[in-house]
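re: ur question from earlier - yeah i can do the single chain one, its not a big deal. heres the input i used so u can compare w yours
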Amino acid sequence: MTEQVMAAIDGSKFSEGVCDYAAWASLALGAPLTFLHVNDNHPQTAETDLSGNIGLGSREHLLEELSQLEERRAKVAQEQGRLMLKAARERAVEKGASEAAGRQRNGTLVETLEELQEEIRLLVVGKRGETAHQDSGHLGSNLERVVRSLHRPILMVPHAFKAPEKVMLAFDGSKTTRKGVEMLAKSPLFEGVPVHVVIVGAETGDNRSQLDWALKTLRDAGHEAEGAIRAGEVEATLRAYQEEQQIDLLVMGAYGHSRIRHLLVGSTTTAMLRKAKGPVLLLR
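and the output i got, formated as tokens:
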């Protein structure tokens, strides 16, 4: 089975960014590109159930009308999704992708991605979906569930595309982040892009040794690499370094027990992703 770049799109403003980053990743990785649209046909709890209001008409008639209404809504949603996929494929080709496939599924996004994850080399998703509150600081609940459920690299993107010119890896010497260094070193996605490796912690012999290994691995692969060990609170320290060095893309490990890996459990993770102005690549 060919692993591919899969991009989840919906009606949100982030879908354009998803299209453009997915096309960029597909070209760089030399991997097929597939756009995914999921119709969530679960009942909307905010809607009022009129089927019990006998005074407004016969119960049988109301149930029939409601059933027809839901059927029409499903058909409209399916057609909207088909048009979105068509537009996404056309946009990707305009951005240089040789071709792109489209897939439409019914269900929930998380369940669908869990079913398809063996086919995914990289998942590209927007910071928020169409059902999320439009406050720019809000993080979509779907994204949090996807991150917790999927065991594939996930690229969370903003609504506007910018080709990364500097990449930063939040590093702690763990197995996950060491794999991240090795992935960055050999991945065509970041070929020719300077990499900054940052450890949040004390200036100890072990941290210095870990950082030296990471820098050597990247430089041996032909990357321009810089490193830093900074003391402080993890989220604030990483964000400050990113702004100071004008980093375009942040790479982080996704789960674990160290200070950095713990970011993806609880409010600290949400804050890190919510405040991100650029793309974030999450590794598993």
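The domain at 4-43+76-157 is CATH 3.40.50.620 (Rossmann fold). not sure if urs matches, ping me
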